[in-house]
Design brief:
single chain, alpha/beta, TIM Barrel, eight-stranded parallel beta barrel, 39% helix
Length: 294
């Protein structure tokens, strides 16, 4: 229409401005939630820094025995004191984590096909709300496949989990999946993270990308960045630093911790970036000193 000519403006994410409705609570977008929700979120995000170091070892639910995760019973006692949150399946938690562990639990509640299937995007809700409560979960993690063949069913899964968890003041963690046909671009992540947040999740887990600060600004809940594939330790720390500088509120590292030769020291180095504002160079120096490597 002619009378609308010139009215369209470029998108402005106001990346220089802090989130406007944080109130006096340390978790983005959670100021208006109830006490129970805030208590669970405080178990995940350190109230002093507002950030978190998650350790994901839920890979076995579709990959089976992954290199580095062959013996959870031996690995986890070495790592639990070096992270803030464990992200895992109920089977791994019940069998391999002592119940006196006092940090956060992000419970994987969606499940699907194994690696033997070409399409992993068709998942189901595998853990009901009653068992999630019995597990004393601080967040329920659901994989969401935006742009994949299983998009509708994964959004349906997410909606069901959010509705059930909200009744009991348990936060939901939306895990943005990136399949082989999905591009890791800021356009994709802006779309996927915003959709998942508007569905009602309290935390979004996604990947780092170019223009990441715009992805963060457009998402009204905290973003935790996934580590992704195994990188050399120095590169992983550089990625972690860039993510935090871009506005992430934490790192959820899996392979970049459990496939490291010095897993506990790597977790500590990531924690220095997340909670103590170390630069990548400072964290690398810390790691080298802790492991006596260069």
């Amino acid at each position: 229409m002619a009378d609308l000519d010139g009215n369209k403006i470029e998108k402005n994410y106001y990346t220089e401005k802090a989130f406007a409705t944080n109130g006096n609570f340390h978790v983005k977008g959670a100021a208006n939630l109830d006490w129970g929700m805030k208590k669970h979120l405080t178990n995940i995000f350190n109230p002093r820094t507002g950030n978190t170091v998650m350790f994901a070892f839920d890979h076995g639910y579709f990959m089976g025995s992954v290199s580095g995760l062959e013996r959870l019973d031996l690995l986890l006692p070495r790592l639990v004191d070096h992270v803030d949150v464990l992200m895992a399946t109920r089977g791994a938690l019940r069998s391999c984590v002592k119940p006196n562990f006092r940090k956060g639990i992000a419970l994987r509640v969606s499940s699907g096909s194994s690696m033997l299937n070409d399409d992993l995007s068709h998942e189901v809700v595998a853990v009901d709300i009653e068992d999630s409560i019995r597990m004393n979960a601080d967040a329920l993690a659901v994989q969401v496949f935006i742009g994949a063949r299983g998009q509708l069913s994964s959004i349906d899964n997410l909606s069901k989990v959010i509705n059930a968890a909200s009744r009991y003041s348990i936060p939901t963690l939306g895990v943005v999946a990136v399949g082989k046909d999905m591009e890791r671009t800021d356009q994709y992540f802006k779309l996927a993270t915003r959709i998942v947040a508007e569905m009602g999740v309290n935390i979004v887990k996604t990947y780092y990308c170019d223009k990441f600060e715009e992805v963060v600004a457009a998402c009204p809940v905290p973003i935790v960045v996934a580590g992704g594939k195994k990188l050399p330790e120095k590169e992983a720390l550089e990625m972690a630093y860039r993510a935090m500088q871009g506005g992430a509120r934490g790192l959820d590292m899996g392979r970049n911790i459990f496939q490291s030769v010095h897993a506990a020291q790597m977790a500590d180095a990531i924690g220095k970036i997340v909670h103590r504002k170390f630069t990548a160079a400072e964290a690398w120096e810390y790691y080298c000193e802790a492991t006596k490597t260069k």
